[in-house]
Amino acid sequence: MKNGWKAYAVLMAAVVLAGYGAGRVTGNRLVEGVILGESRMPLLVSKPVGQFYDIYRLLNSANPFSRLSGYYALVDNMMIDEGFLIERYGVERFAVTRRTILWALSFSENSRKVADFYRSIYGESDGETQSEIRGLMKRVCREGGEDCALPGGEKQ
Question: Does residue 125 have a pLDDT over 90?
Answer without folding.
Answer: no
